[in-house]
Amino acid sequence: MKKEISNIPDFTKTVPIDQVNVEERVAKLNTRSIKKESKMFALKLAMQMIDLTTLEGSDSPGRVKQLCHKAMRPYSSDADIPKVAAVCVYPTYVRIARETLKGSGINVASVATSFPSGWAPLKTKLEEVRYCVEEGADEIDMVISRGEFLKGNFSYIFDEVAAVKEACGPAHLKVILETGELQTLDNVRKASDIAMYAGADFIKTSTGKISPAATQPVTLVMLEAIRDFYYKTGVKIGMKPAGGIRDSKTALRYLVMVRETLGNDWMNPDMFRFGASSLANDLLMQIIKQQTGVYQSADYFSKD
Amino acid sequence: MNKRLEVKKTYKMYIGGAFPRSESERYYSLKDKNGNQIANICRASRKDFRNSVVAARKAQSGWASRTAYNRSQILYRIAEMMEGRASQLAEELVLEGLSSKKAVEEVNEAIDRVVYFAGWCDKFQQIFSTVNPVAGSYFNFSVPKPTGVVSVIMPEKSSLLGLLQLILPAIAGGNSVIVLLPQNNPLAGLTFAEILHTSDMPGGVINILSGFREELLEQFASHMDVNAVIYGGSDTESLKLIQEQASKNVKHVVVETSNNFFDESFKNPYCILDLQEIKTTWHPVGI
Question: What is the count of residue pairs from A and B with beta carbons less than 8 Å apart?
Fold first, then answer.
């Protein structure tokens, strides 16, 4: 029995993270300057990596449809601007999103497992996941039980992620660590490792419902966890920072981190995503600014 | 011999309620008539302007939604704060080349001008609003509403009074502004930013940049998030450029050719109306 699980690390042990070094590395990478053609390329790439998201209590079928149309054609005046990777909604809206996006090649992602808090019995969570997949979700964004994690109940998290992965069937699984509640970078690293070994296809920073959401240091730690996992197992895990990435400048900084930590294989929408809503408009405004030389105004771009 | 080291002031710009240097780290040297160095002045870049527009946009709705009475109080507070720094402002105008008598006159007039427009904040609406006769059972009325974000290119002369005459009507009417100070006379304007900072004026409503006019003119006129541009000057080439660029999002263009802001004609509420849009409401009424 022992041999079977020997490739899984002992999660009670901690991979130590040097916070000062992480911050310094981030600061150093932030000094990179990306201009002209490279900037245009990066802006368009970032656009293709967006999971256009609406997760509000006030969501309506109309709003979800509107968001889907925005996903397919972000800027009505220019068809050359690429479409986004996916639309991310609550389980109830998966079907509407699925129907609206039919034939567009854009995935439907759904949050599940009692998003955002994760406080529900496992059985309920699994049912929710199966419901989302039946409704037509291509990707499931689950939250881990931070309460159990902070108690030190790591095997609970492992089993939870593994069970959800099984319930996902063909759908891709993104595991939200909600790093804003994990308190230390050591915990972020540990949660990343648990999620990846338990079967996550993507690891994701945050729900976007609490502050701080995605930060660069946290993302760097997760990217390094992905790199180490790849070296060990040969499996490529995707990364999705979410929440708080509102402008192009920040998005480009994330892309630099990905390129420098994981390399070109991760520089595509299959391996890297931005969970965002307002970022799309800022990218659009920057792209149009690059094309026309004139600074743009939010007045001339659709609100969602 | 005086052993104390002189503590010189670093003149900085005013963007979004903070005092940054230019993000480009560029500066130019300001000299007096005899060629002696007065200070190094920040040379704003396009990005500084862009950041100012973001700050101005963010602040504008909050400023406009304050009560007119409160805007009036805050403007009056600016006058109070200027009174306390009057001698410093006068000294700076002297450094810029005015005689001390003229400098004091200009500072006094500037403070009075602030009080003048403070008074108009909650009064121009009544004067410019109308109830319109229409053929139908509607109550039809028109009221002035602020245009939004206003960029201001100052004339080369009259750094303090000119500054106030160009921005106060915009501010009194609920707009936010980004102003480019005269290249060779920026001192009093930059000190005015410190006065604003202590006058309850919310950050971002007034943003003050120093730099080269020819470098920034096009940006001031072309930025799509700016709703009106005030040009102080009479250079036809510049004006043509401004009007062309402003046409991109149909900005209001207000041209101020005068250099004598003491003129009584400046004391009128129509300056406020220049930066307002008239909104008309059709309200159905029962017969």
Answer: 24
